[in-house]
Amino acid sequence: MYDNFSFQERKKIFFWFLDKLLRDGKLKLAKYGKFLSGSIDEQLQSFYAAFPETEEQLIDQFWFFDEGCPGGAVWVLKDGAVEWT
């Protein structure tokens, strides 16, 4: 299904969803057990700047688990509790 979209298109969709989830309060970003500081725009910019240039780099480096990834996802549940990933 995703083969119909280029890596750059999927990257754009990923950042659109990341932005929406952060602004809707459904997701927070954290690293080493602490929420990232800065505005949502600043957090998104740090992710965008660190994001791999190619799909191969994304997959080969396990980027989301790599030290180069600025943070991980913390889901905000309906009751306000958080679910760390």
Describe it for me?
It is a single chain. The chain has 85 residues and is α+β, with helices and mostly antiparallel strands. Helices cover 40% and strands 18% of the residues. The chain has a 4-stranded antiparallel β-sheet with strand order 2-1-3-4, with helices on one face. The protein is globular and about 35 Å long.
Quick structural gist:
The chain has 85 residues and is α+β, with helices and mostly antiparallel strands.
Layout of SSEs?
Elements lengths: L6 H17 L3 E5 L2 E2 L4 H11 L4 H6 L11 E5 L5 E3 L1
Antiparallel strand pairs: 1-2, 1-3, 3-4
**Proportion of residues in β-strands:** 15-25%
Low-confidence stretches: none
Total count of helical runs of at least 4 residues: 3
CATH class (first level) name = Mainly Alpha
Mean pLDDT level: 93
Just name the CATH architecture: Orthogonal Bundle
Cα gyration radius (Å): 13 Å
What's the total number of strands?
Answer: 4
Quaternary state reads single chain
CATH domain fold name: NMB0513-like
Order of helices and strands: HEEHHEE
What descriptive keywords fit this protein?
85 residues, alpha+beta, NMB0513-like, four-stranded antiparallel beta sheet, globular
